[in-house]
Amino acid sequence: MFSELFLPVLMVIFMLVVGGYAVAVLDRLVASALGTPQAGGIWLAPMARGAWLLTQHANATEAPDWRAWRLAPALYLALAAGGLAVVPWSASLVATDLVTSVVLWGSVEALATVVIFLHGWSANSLLALIGGYRYVALGLSYILISMFVLIGVALPAESLQFTQVVASQEGLWNVIRQPLGLPLFLIVGLGMTFWGPLNLADSTDLAGGTASEISGPPRLVWDMARATMLVAFSGVAATAFLGGWLGPWLPGPLWMSLKMLAVLSVLLLLGRLLPRLAPERCVTLMWVVLLPLSFIDLVWAGIGALL
Amino acid sequence: MELFALLIILIVALGAGLLLQWLPMRHQPRPNWSQRVPFLGGGTPDSHAWSRYHVRYYPMTLLLIAFEMEMMFMYPWAVVFVEKGMKAMMEMGMFLAILSVGIVYAWREGVFKWQ
After folding, report:
1. Number of C-alpha atoms within 13 angstroms, CB side, residue A13?
2. Are B36 and A140 within 8 A, CB to CB?
3. Which helix (H) or strand (E) holds A12?
4. Residue B39: its chain A contacts at CB < 8 A?
5. How many structural domains is chain A composed of?
6. Least packed by Cβ within 10 Å: which of A102, A126, A260, B79?
7. Mean pLDDT over each residue of chain A, to the nearest integer
């Protein structure tokens, strides 16, 4: 009972806390390396901000959809937890080793669109609503790319289980075997957490978008959920393309953490370096350029699996 | 048991997200009405934000439905792909080719633009 039920729950909570903190620290490290001065110590600043948000008064609009407004950040956090639950740390150390974990991750991506739109909708404020509508256009465009790329890694594994996907990379990692896969998947990651160049939902040109009307504890949960979703995504990316726990000398979980940190650093660096894309161009870019590229990736993966 | 553990994880995370908001906020007074005006750069709202709104990318969402149906076939297809070999490859290739014609047609019709 303990090892089957409590251990997975404790594992995911641990990853949510440590992962969220790691993203906050890493983002500040990247920013200061690029020359943006950071107020306060890099290690303590995330905690100071968290404590400040916890004690800050929460904002309210005139007639919001109260229940949905409070539920949306919590639901996004729950989705991140669901994603982290299927990430394998070694052949046996997985919170929930579902046979259909790839399908579960696909549903997390699809439901993220619903939750982010709910967040923009429920404030009953124009800028938040526009952020929500914009995000739906992006979310419906990237989800196909993500699915084709993930089916590509499932082909050589002959399974929809992430542990099998890692086992199939014993000889050669998917990042080399399917060179188009990881770059396409990283774009999906930026879209899913609306980070950096694909931050269309909470962008500054909408004065904060879906988060323009929230402060205090709801903002704390929303920011935490975004950060932990980025961690969950980096876990899936490391599992699907970078060979998960595989590697010489070091133990599996350590390799996995190093690979996740590498993916996170790349994403946060891209987030700080690239300018935000115009939302009108995003849809055409995804459907006309990136989606056909993901078809090519799938055919490439298929031929590779048959040879 | 694995699905049950996943369910518990989802419920615990959802509960944590709600508690983190409810516990610090339960004794906070609501902001007064003048503070609760939605942010409109200083303007006053004439109506609800939830008024009718023309979503310009609406036809794109219809195109997505065609592909989403296809995804349902792809999950079982991925598992038996190596076993079935070239036959499975050709089948999915034909399927994708037909759907790609749909993308090209939609592109020509300007579905991906927001005019």
Report:
1. 16
2. no
3. helix A7-33
4. 125, 127, 207, 212-213
5. 1
6. B79
7. 90
Give the residue from B25, B33, B39, B53 with the most A CB atoms within 10 Å of its CB, the best one to mutate.
Answer: B39
B64 lies in some domain: yes
Nearest-CA distance from B17 to chain A in Å? 4
Work out how many domains chain B is built from and give that number.
Answer: 1
The nearest CA of chain A is from the CA of B91 a distance in Å of 12
Average pLDDT per consecutive 10 residues, chain B (115 residues; last block may be shorter): 89 94 88 82 79 81 84 88 87 88 88 76
CB–CB contact A5 B2 (8 Å): no
| A306 phi, psi to nearest 5 deg | -80, -30
In a domain, B51, yes or no: no
The contacts of residue A132 (CB under 8 Å, 6+ apart) are A116, A117, A118, A119, A120, A121, A201, A209, A210
- Asked, for residue B21, whether it belongs to a domain, the answer is no
Determine, yes or no, domain membership for B41: no
Give the ipTM: 0.90
Instruction: Note down the domain range covering A73.
Output: 2-306
Residue type, A156: P
Q: Nearest 5 degrees, angle CA A256-CA A75-CA A198?
A: 65
**Which of B63, B70, B79 best tests the A interface by mutation, with the highest count of A CBs <10 A?**
B79
Q: Closest Cα of chain B to A121: distance in Å?
A: 8
Does residue A200 contact residue A138 with C-beta atoms inside 8 Å?
A: yes
> What letter would DSSP give residue A88?
B
Could you count the other beta carbons within 10 Å of the beta carbon of residue B7?
Answer: 12
Taking an 8 Å cut-off on Cβ atoms, the answer to whether A104 and B6 are in contact is yes
| Those residues with Cβ within 8 angstroms of residue A206's Cβ, 6 or more apart along the chain or in another chain | A127, A128, A130, A131, A134, A212
Range of the domain at B69: 56-115
pTM beyond 0.90: the answer is yes
Angle between helical axes of A45-55 and A7-33 (0-180°, round to 10): 110
